[in-house]
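Repro:
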Amino acid sequence: MHDKRLTNVTITEVRVTNDLQIAKVYWTQLGREGHEQGERRRAQQALNQAKGRLRSLVGTKAGLRLTPQLEFVFDEVPGEAHEIEDILAIARKRDEELAKLVKPPSMRAKPIRTSIRKRMTTMISTMMTSKSKIGMMTKKPEHSGLLVIDKPQGVTSHDVVAAVRGALHMKRVGHAGTLDPMATGVLVVGFGNATRLLNYIVDHNKTYEATIRLGQRTTTDDAEGELLPAGERAVNFPSRQAVEQLITERFTGRIEQVPNVYSAIKVNGQRAYDLAREGKDVELKARPVTIEEFNVRQARYGYTHSDRAGTELAGAVVAERAGDGWIADTAPYEDMQPVMELDVTVTCSAGTYIRALARDLGEELGLGGHLTMLRRTRVGRFSVNMPNVMSAHAESKTFTNREGMEVTRNRAVLDDADHALDHALDPVASAAASMNMLAVSDQEAVDLRFGRRIAHDIRTTTAAYVEETNDLVAILERAKRGEAKPVAVFN
């Protein structure tokens, strides 16, 4: 961490308690500015902010599993440190002068600093456990924040993370909730310390816009899969009103849902989709989810190809709210079949699979169903309509794999990669969009970073920050009535 506030800071002594729980680090400032109260206060603040990084360095270097808490204490005798520096400077100069004299060995004068050095070495080892500046001991702080990216179709969520890593030249990047390659829309990507917020964001409810095709089944419950044999093709399709009634009765509120086997759920440590692609039998258990909203925006009937999924609807007829449904005529071509399509909006809890909703709705209607379009428009307070949303596109890339085969696949490309940070929310803004906020004092911030509780009564997960410095301090949870405890600390 290159911090100008720490330019002249030097450690004078370190005292560790017998139980190795606390290490008091005494420090001073060499130079005239060290005597100014303002400079001292700013240096103290910078040291407090560097505690986490310094503890990590100490633990790594010393191989400690438990590193003592650091308490920085200003040494009130900086004048003595200045005096020592002056004495050493004079002694070094005298040594240089003596070294230039050419005399027989028996007549050479001994350097006058021999005795001084011995005494000073003892004093320096006590007073200055490290002559290196604190700013030289720590790394340059990495950027932290959140990006709201409009994921394009045809790339994975991991592809988008890789694009952000390349744009920011950072490894510490992650996302809050996978979107399938076919899906588009909001993907919240965190970098730096803000990745700690992702575990909270992933649990927020979400809103999707989707198109459900009734009358066809696929292996993956979406248009990316292969069509399954349909048996006798349906020709009688329900009215929009009948579908909406079924959705109200069976697919809103708390329901049980079995995810598709081609999902990222882990089974004995392996992804379900990997097992399914290997031809292994995968059995996933039903899980409870909550559907807050499941509205049909439009319903239509028409024909589509019967040999492949995802083709456009031909001869579409929009269904009115009231009606008797639709009885299909003869398809315009032999390789086409009648289907019904629904444009829907779904707001649901985390862990809901929209393609499973499409499949189950089709099964209830006796028609089969799958998704042909999916777009996530909101994750918690992060919306696709936010002004700082970053767009991206898919781009084909051809490369030679380890087996020497030429492979072509899509990669994600950020549309404004050179200015990615301009689109990012800073840590405080990121936390504010993720959870409740609590302004704390400088002393409370210090206590939280030591892992201590503070006297605030909170009901839900809350982010603590110092308003004056726009400093995100910690994520808090309720400890007991009137007390909050830190569960994650930001340094």
